[in-house]
Amino acid sequence: MLNNSTKGKIVFTDNNGSFKIGKPEDTSYLYFPIASEAGLKSSLTPNLGGDSMVDQETFILEPTSVENLHNNKNTRNFWLYMEDGKVWSASGSSAEQESQKFTMDQDESAVEAGFMWHKATRASNCYDIGAEILSFVPVNENVEIMSVTIRNTGSEEKLITPIAAVPLYGRSADNLRDHRNVTSMLHRIATTEEGVLVKPTMSFDEKGHRPNNKTYFVIGHREDGTKPESFFPTVETFVGEGGSFFKPRSVYRQEEGLRAGEKMAGLEAVGGLKFSKIKLAPDESVTFNILIGVTEDEKEIEKLSKKYAYKSEVEKEFQTTKEYWQKKVNVSFYTGDKNFDEFMAWVAFQPFLRRVYGCSFLPYHDYGRGGRGWRDLWQDCLSLLFMEPDNVRQMIVANFGGVRMDGTNATIIGEGLGNFIADRNGIARVWMDHAFWPFRTLLLYINQTGDYSILKAKVPYFKDSIVRRGTVVDKKYEVVDNKQHTEDDSVYLGSIIEHLLVENLCAFYEVGQHNVLKLRGADWNDALDMASTNGESSAFSYAYAGNLLELANLIFAVSKEDGIDEIHIATELKRLLDLDSYDSVEEKTNRLAEYCRSCEGNIKGTQASIPVNVLVEKLRGMSSWMTNHLNKQEWLEGNKGEGWFNSYYDDSCRRVERFSDSDEETRMMLTGQVFAIMGNVATDEQIHKIVQAADHYLYKEAIGGYRLNTDFREVKYDLGRMFGFAYGEKENGAVFSHMSVMYANALYGRGFAKEGFKSLNALFATAMNFNVSHMYPGIPEYFDSKGRGKYPYLTGAASWYLLTMITEVFGVKGEAGNLVIAPALLKEQFDEEGKARINLTFAEKKFDIVYTNPSKLQFGEYKIKEASLNNNKLAVENNRIIIPRKVVEEQAAHEVLVVLG
Fold first, then answer.
1. Domain range summary for the chain, segments of one domain joined by +
2. Are 111 and 126 in contact (CB under 8 A)?
3. Where in the numbering of this chain does the Glycosyl hydrolase 94 catalytic domain appear (predicted)?
4. Whole-structure pTM over 0.85, yes or no?
5. Which neighbouring-strand residues pair with 403?
């Protein structure tokens, strides 16, 4: 009998994030990811529902959206027929077990899981039988292994007949609602000695008919290598007339299956594998290894069959896979709160999941077709800088190749590094925030590495038929190599400094009626997509004000580092540095239009030289103008020490936010506050007022903390689709993790640690309160109006949470390549002895940094009293420790002890 003391709560079972939870099938919408580096991506519910695929065209199991998780019956399954006629599903997916849910006869069950592995355990309260199903995907193979162990938990011998059943979909996700039946006619199904193979004759859709080379398969063995005795290779043979996947006729009537060597065509397929009867003595167990996969080389199936026929080989591969993914997370935290420390292990792992899955291929994420967006490319680099820094430079340089000369960027991102694709349909959508993220990522990279030389790297520009910042599609333009060419038809290469200038200067000049940056198709909030004519984003205007100042400071720093007096930029770009006054909307838009026309086709290919001091002064002047203009125009003063910044103007040219004596009439959004603080537009006095207002209008601790906005109580067709959503869902007033974390990050960056911690802690507390969040460990995209975590695993919030914990909370960050230590830990983040600890890699060297706060002082009360590196005393200046990079590189590992008092 299983111990269900873990029902309704997450219990961590080691120090690597592995956890256990009892009776997980009593919670809806749960699923877990397992995947490989080779491309296979799967999801598993507690009852082994979910799907498995390589890409949009290659789904092994039927594609599932989140509502399918509790509706679909055609899940991975493993049936047992017992000699007394009783039938039991090892995955809990049978008609009888469904009817027993929430009764005394319900199976005892649990899920235990870790990075890329999932174990479902079940024991019958009626039949004295138990099962353990381990699922994982070997690191470099496109096969999902389902290792099923059956145990006799009774006092008498049992005779059982085991039958594995995995429905094979075997085609594109598009065919789920487009020619589902017709495409089944393409199936060619065969039984082999080990299992069932499906090879469609072609891929069929409205884009055309293409020969198919992929073979989908389900094969299996008993632990000693024994093969199945017969097969049910189609829905018709397995389910039977009048049956269902919850009550298949072949199992309940113990029908004879087909032998190896049979062939069928034009039917829906099932990997139905019937094994010979087996006797189990009391407490005896037997394991079956079921392989589910796809390949373009059928010899690979034979190879996998031999490799994983025996239990010992599967166990060995499982340990290899487990260790591989554990090593990926090379940062760990110790705060005295084990739940938080293990929660952070999952937060640190989530960026790897997004690298594998993109923004698609999990049940909530049913809106994409694979791959990542522009914003994702840059934000995922943030966490990889800490965990996989080796390839980040190459990634950053390649990603800049997606920038157009008009400051916009490619939105279709292909496979491989730096592969950007033209939109053949000429659909031009511009997200006005896109220029913000590359600089933030690059700045972190330079601070972590001291690699100023990256700014001089020469990179091409992306080119397609979309010109003038997405306002015109040049149908005459022939897409050749998707690169910007010069008048002599050579590919133009510009430095990364030039790319940054192109992005940020074009954004600066593209303003609306209020001299605020135009909203265009949307900004970070994709659902603000109905104000493309007159909408303006004050929120990201604050962000760009900060960008321009920091870009100026970076150019000044690199000039001092390398002794550079001049910066070389495309001749055409110089006109965006010649305007002296920024008060006129008309002058700014005309100047941008002139520039965009100049780079509409091929550009000259010549460059102008700009003195560094002139360029730096220009950029600082732009930032200063924006800061003053926005502060004067966008600040809203409330009552009782409250105030905040307006975030947007709608397509009717109206300011979106407002203060009213009535809370119901007051409108406030979190996004504007985040970037006003982060971009240094807000003063410290204003931050105090913002915090008061956010706590009043947006904060709700029980559902995760800070909502994205107050309830506007209208469907704003002149701003975005978000207002069509129910309030508290997704972008309309949910606790959107990404912006909540960035709010914390901004507050920490300005010295408001207590206020920042409040946001981070509310997200953690809600995520780990399983009875509220109903999710496995990690941070979701958002929490809904009841606190349920939605869209788990694939969110940029994880990268920002990790970044904030390392660089702000624990205060371990790079500065021109040197290591700076300046903690902002609150007293509640130390253990009972006043200790906190972080292990991480910096400059490819391992660091173990221990803080001791023996008097348990609060942040703001303590200072760094003394510090040592490998028992050698460190200097403390202005309450910071700076360890020169030369010192960091001298040894492979470093122990740092910091005493606070």
1. 30-328, 331-344+638-664+675-796, 810-900
2. no
3. 324-551, 617-810
4. yes
5. 409
